[in-house]
């Protein structure tokens, strides 16, 4: 996401059977590696730290209900079982709509 909340690039991938925490950590690692050119969580954290030391970034926590685009990407990665890079112009209408909802601060509640 850009500073204005616009999508610059997105992806989804499949990480097999693992916890949601491990999947999110691995996705962060994958995103950092793929956009810049059977492991343990510790390895991924160390890899992330190496990438972050080269970048000027900041992170903040957001509850799952407030980030429906990340939820959509995670679900599609699990369904499709492969890596797929989506540039901003390639995002589907569905994802663009979800981004708008995120930018407007509207939560997504699962039923």
From TrEMBL:
<feature type="domain" description="RNase H type-1">
    <location>
        <begin position="41"/>
        <end position="76"/>
    </location>
</feature>
<dbReference type="InterPro" id="IPR044730">
    <property type="entry name" value="RNase_H-like_dom_plant"/>
</dbReference>
<dbReference type="InterPro" id="IPR002156">
    <property type="entry name" value="RNaseH_domain"/>
</dbReference>
<dbReference type="InterPro" id="IPR012337">
    <property type="entry name" value="RNaseH-like_sf"/>
</dbReference>
<dbReference type="Pfam" id="PF13456">
    <property type="entry name" value="RVT_3"/>
</dbReference>
<dbReference type="InterPro" id="IPR036397">
    <property type="entry name" value="RNaseH_sf"/>
</dbReference>
<protein>
    <submittedName>
        <fullName>Ribonuclease H protein</fullName>
    </submittedName>
</protein>
């Amino acid at each position: 996401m850009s500073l204005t909340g616009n999508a610059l690039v997105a992806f989804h991938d499949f990480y097999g059977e693992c916890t949601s925490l491990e999947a999110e950590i691995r996705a962060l690692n994958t995103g950092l590696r793929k956009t810049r050119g059977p492991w343990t969580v510790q390895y991924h954290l160390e890899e992330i730290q190496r990438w972050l030391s080269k970048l000027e970034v900041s992170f903040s926590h957001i509850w799952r209900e407030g980030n429906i685009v990340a939820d959509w990407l995670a679900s599609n990665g699990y369904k499709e079982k492969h890596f797929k890079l989506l540039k901003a112009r390639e995002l589907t209408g569905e994802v663009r709509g979800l981004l708008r909802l995120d930018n407007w601060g509207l939560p997504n509640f699962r039923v």
